[in-house]
Structures are given as structure tokens and as C-alpha cells.
Amino acid sequence: xxxxxxxxxxxxxxxxxxxxxxxxxxxxxxxxxxxxxxxxxxxxxxxxxxxxxxxxxxxxxxxxxxxxxxxxxxxxxxxxxxxxxxxxxxxxxxxxxxxxxxxxxxxxxxxxxxxxxxxxxxxxxxxxxxxxxxxxxxxxxxxxxxxxxxxxxxxxxxxxxxxxxxxxxxxxxxxxxxxxxxxxxxxxxxxxxxxxxxxxxxxxxxxxxxxxxxxxxxxxxxxxxxxxxxxxxxxxxxxxxxxxxxxxxxxxxxxxxxxxxxxxxxxxxxxxxxxxxx
Amino acid sequence: xxxxxxxxxxxxxxxxxxxxxxxxxxxxxxxxxxxxxxxxxxxxxxxxxxxxxxxxxxxxxxxxxxxxxxxxxxxxxxxxxxxxxxxxxxxxxxxxxxxxxxxxxxxxxxxxxxxxxxxxxxxxxxxxxxxxxxxxxxxxxxxxxxxxxxxxxxxxxxxxxxxxxxxxxxxxxxxxxxxxxxxxxxxxxxxxxxxxxxxxxxxxxxxxxxxxxxxxxxxxxxxxxxxxxxxxxxxxxxxxxxxxxxxxxxxxxxxxxxxxxxxxxxxxxxxxxxxxxxxxxxxxxxxxxxxxxxxxxxxxxxxxxxxxxxxxxxxxxxxxxxxxxxxxxxxxxxxxxxxxxxxxxxxxxxxxxxxxxxxxxxxxxxxxxxxxxxxxxxxxxxxxxxxxxxxxxxxxxxxxxxxxxxxxxxxxxxxxxxxxxxxxxxxxxxxxxxxxxxxxxxxxxxxxxxxxxxxxxxxxxxxxxx
Lengths: 278, 466
Description:
The complex is a heterodimer.
Chain A: E1 2-8, H1 12-23, E2 29-32, H2 52-62, E3 67-69, E4 73-78, E5 86-92, E6 95-106, E7 110-112, E8 121-122, E9 128-129, H3 131-139, E10 142-143, E11 147-152, H4 155-166, E12 170-175, E13 179-185, E14 192-197, E15 203-207, E16 210-212, E17 217-219, E18 250-252, H5 264-276
Parallel strand pairs in A: 1-2, 1-6, 2-3, 6-18, 8-13, 9-16, 11-12, 11-16
Antiparallel strand pairs in A: 4-5, 5-6, 7-17, 13-14, 14-15
Helix pairs in contact in A: 1-2, 1-5
Chain B: E1 5-11, H1 15-24, E2 31-35, E3 51-52, H2 63-81, E4 86-87, E5 91-95, H3 98-114, E6 120-123, H4 124-130, E7 140-144, E8 148-150, H5 152-165, E9 169-172, E10 176-181, E11 186-190, E12 195-203, H6 209-214, E13 223-233, E14 242-245, E15 255-258, E16 264-267, E17 271-272, H7 283-294, E18 307-316, E19 322-325, E20 332-336, H8 342-359, E21 388-390, E22 395-396, H9 397-404, H10 413-420, H11 433-442, E23 461-462
Parallel strand pairs in B: 1-2, 1-12, 2-9, 5-14, 12-20
Antiparallel strand pairs in B: 3-8, 4-8, 5-7, 6-7, 10-11, 11-12, 13-16, 13-17, 13-18, 15-16, 19-20, 21-22
Helix pairs in contact in B: 1-5, 1-8, 2-8
């Protein structure tokens, strides 16, 4: 299989790249994503009111005539030699595919950094999770708990608080600007958390059976280790301000890069350059 | 089968209990193992350094040293037969000044000799060549070539799996509430109300082995919990061996060890406590680990950690392993007080226990068709391995379903973790746990609500979007 452009990751950035590709008239485009739906790890939140623009973007994306694969994860990437094509291995439900691509745009995003990455003391009971996991549970007909504390530090976490409240869950929100997660209690299941006031170091505690917490990001660049694409010491893809990676004809945008968010203008400009030069 | 009288029931599904079950499964016996938690390997066996110790520093002539010595000869076959990931990387005890060198020369070299463990002095240059990340202050190290690292999850599970393949019964998820001594044996009552009759009991209940012992009125030993906190990192540390400190009079110190399934472990602390289950980590504990480790490897403080955890070691009032019949009832054999070398000594402990059982009258007749090897459960060349489930660790769907089809299928997320490595990566399962729940559900392994690991560790409640 051979494509003009392969887009790795169909989160909001990858979706924007696909829409731009259509505007530019590209025909042979493949977009692959690990999740079972498009729109990123937190795709089910996009139905909420706070995400009007994103919702429209997703609607337009669904109408694109491109090949779109869900449950499709890139496990290997081999950059082109000379004038050859790049090659990627994509693992799917029905097998592993070796795909050739003239150009690749990496939008594989980042995963939420969980409690465990922050050396927060206490026990490790069930019930402590990131927004992504909470959404995954909601999608499957579960609730994360009856008494949930949400650590609010993003549009995602705030929307999730609302969503849980609407489901009748008792939600306590903790504002990340004011509080740091301090300690976790409970043997098999979560019983209590402590937070520390960032202004005066005072400890406050909350009884709860679930804590939704994440802080910071883990770039989803696992498949790039050992390739020619240079990563920084935290494994984010090194790019210039226009998304150029260390390999020709491979761009990277969004949270998987060392530039975090990429504006739609930058995506448009960089993609035009990428396809005009060839 | 419900009312059949067992020959032997092993209480405790840690590495010691399952090793004993495996050994007994090679004989014509009707045997069972009782584990309170929903899976094997839920206590000290899951939260340790994963090092196979030689016993170079064990008290000479102790039962612990004896079991470690016996185990050394058994491990090579076991790792192969049971397919236990195992790396014979060796360990070095690093001296950072002349005083530490002297302690090694005066104490550890003679101790190793007494336990028949081969050790040699490694000079500064060689230490740094093999382990460039070690501090420049190193003056040399004691090299213990026989030390190795292995996967304690696989070890524990594989013991249980082989036993099950050989006909042993595993009773998971319900602990012992009562033991009654009968005319010719015992009657055990479980939390779920089930009654089990058996002629012999092996008490391998870890930190709870004193509780189990007291159920028949034997209070000959007490177990004190000792917590050990660890830090797991996936940073690249330029070492090829286990890096040990020279212990001081006050503390055994903290080590840095490669992990067979990736990354490095720093720890453990040694904190005596009352609570047998308090495995919380603390700022002070983590600081103690970092403080200890940075003396050996500068810069550890700046490493990102993907997880911190603590295990509870079973420290015995007698100061040594307790492997003997109870004085109250000879048909009740203790395998208790297995302080911190349980994984390393498990093959030897199983041999000792079998001999003790034979001494008190159990007939051990070899089962002719007993298997010694875990069969290859899946063909790795299989073309369609399914989609990627665990993104951080690139674990496929078929790696998970193969585990679910094994002789001891997991029913919890942590059970899947210990069998496949899924959820062990940086996101700690937050991205793939919902997908794993789907698969467990498909295999009808979830009772009502999905569990993380322990009894009652429900991950979620009913009532979401669907």
C-alpha cells in the first residue's frame, strides 16, 4: 500500500491536518489512530457544549473521502533512503500492514501523565484515574465512583466535572492553580485524598471513592524510539516552529512535539510548503 | 470433588506457596492452594526487587542460607522449564571509601565463603567500565557474579500454572477464616463459606502466617511487617549489574537494579510497622531511597519516575525462616518468616517443605505423567496478533487473550498486568484499562464489576453512558 500522505493520529490536530490536505486537493491520504473512534483519547467529551468548534471539525472530517483506520497503531517507522518512500508498520485488528508514504505528518499527541509520575505519597487503591480513563469507563456504561474529586487543570477536566455532575455523581472540584495533590488513602479502594494549598501549605482532605487527576503529558512517540526522528530528553519530537522534524518529508504537529499546540495557520502554511517543494 | 479430602492444602498464593504447590504437584497427591486475593502474587511477591540472591550475605548456617544454597542449583532448570524471564547480570557491592572496602574484606568476603558463594574483588576501573553511571568516588567493589534478576510475577504464576497443569486446585479470592483440627487432619472454612477437608496443611501465608498459625493455637512465632519503598524509573541508567551499597550498622541501604521487563528499580527502605497491609509510600521514604541511591549513582534525584510502590516483608520473631511442623499438630507445616529472600529461596523452600511433609508421614510417590515444563501457549510467529492495546508497552490483543486462555487466567487488571506487561508503562494503564476491561468481559472473567487487583478493589460502578 502506498500513499501520498499518511497522518499518524486522528486527534484534533490530525483531523485538522486531514481537512487541510483536502483543501489542498490531495487524493491519496491515509489516517490511522490507536483509538476506536476519531477525535483523540477524549473523543467522547466532544459531544459536550464546551466543544462546539471541535464538534464541527469532527463532522467535516467524517465526510472526507480518505482512508481512515481506527484501532490502528503505528509500531515501526523507517525513514526513506534517498528518493525512496518512507515506510511504516501499522498494526490493526486484522493484521499488520507495511505502508509506503511519500510524506508523513505525525500528530500522535500525548497521554495524560498520571498520579504515579508525580511521586505523590500514599497507597495505590482502585479509583485513582486520569480523565481519559474516566471517559473510557463512562463510554462502557460505568461510573468512576459515587463521590468523585476532579483535579481541574484543563478544558477536558472541567468538562468532565460537568459531565459527571449531570449523571448525578457527587463531584468535588479541586483547582490546580491553588492546590497540589498531596496524599492518597485507601487499601483496595480509594477512601480519601489530601491536597495542599499552594499558598499556605495547609492540608485539606476529602472523602471520595474516585479521584480524577493528571498533570503534564507523556508524548505518544513510543514507536519513534530508535528511528532517525530526533526526540528531546522527555521524548517529545524536536521540531522547528513550522513542524519540521529531523527527517525530510516528515512533519510533526501538536502535543507530540516540543512545541505543544500547533495553530491551524501554522499547519496550513507548513503543509503548503511541504507539498509545493515536491 | 467438593467433599473429597485433600492430601495437602497450601495456604498462601505468593511465590513460596506456589513453589510448594508446584513441587507437591509432581507426586500422586490431591492438593489445593488457598489464596485470599483474586490472583496469585498479590502480597510481598509482587512488590520486591526481583533479584535472585545468592545468599552471599545471609547468616551462615541459617535455614535461610541453606534454602538459598539449595535454590542456586535449581534455578537454571526452573527458569527454563517455567519460562521465567531471567538475566544473570551479577551484582556489585560498591565501596566508596577505604572504610567500606575494609567492611567488605572483613565481613562480606568471609561470609560469602561460608555460604559457598563465589565472589571476587573488582577494581575501580573495571567497575566503571561495566557500570559507567557509578560514582567517581568508587574505590572498587565486591563482585557477586551469581546474583541475577528475574520477573517475580512470572515466577509465582508459572509455579501455580505448572501445578494446575499437574492437577492441583487453585482456590482464589477467598481467605481462611477458621481451621478446626479433626481426628486425622483439618477442616478449613473459607470467607465464602466453603469447607475443605485435608490431611496436611502448609502455612505459607506470608505476613499473615502467624495469624494462620494461631488458628490451631500455635503462637510459637510472630511476624512483624517491614515496609520497603521502591522507585521505578524508565530513564536510561548506564549500569549492567545490580548496584549494592555497603550496609552500615544501622541500615542495609538502598540498591539500584535493572528490571527484566524494562527500566530500573531504586530501593527499598526498611521500615518496621504494625499494620500488615499499609503499603503506602511517603515523601520521607522516597527521599531516603534517593539519598541512599545518589551516593552510588549521582543524579538519580533528577530521574523521572513512572511509579513508586512499597512491599511488606515478613520479619519473623525467631530471626530465621520457620520451616517445620507445628508443635501443636505435626500435620501442619510452617513455611513462614520468609523475610526478604522468598523469591530467591523458593525452589529450596519447596524442597525443604516436601521433606518435612514426608518426615511426618506423607507418602511422596512420583506421578508418572507429571509435567515439568510449561507448554508454549502461543505461537509468536502467528501473523494476526490483533490490535495494539497497551500503547506505552506495545502489547497486542493476542498477548492479552493468550494470558486469559492460560492455566491460571487473570480476573483483574493487575492480573493482566503481571501476565502481559500491559499497563506497566508510563501512562500506568490509564489509556488501555477500558480496553482491557472489554477483553476480560468478552472472556466472561469479570464477576460483576471490574477489579483492579485486591478483593473489593472495584475500578468503576454501573451507571455510565450506555
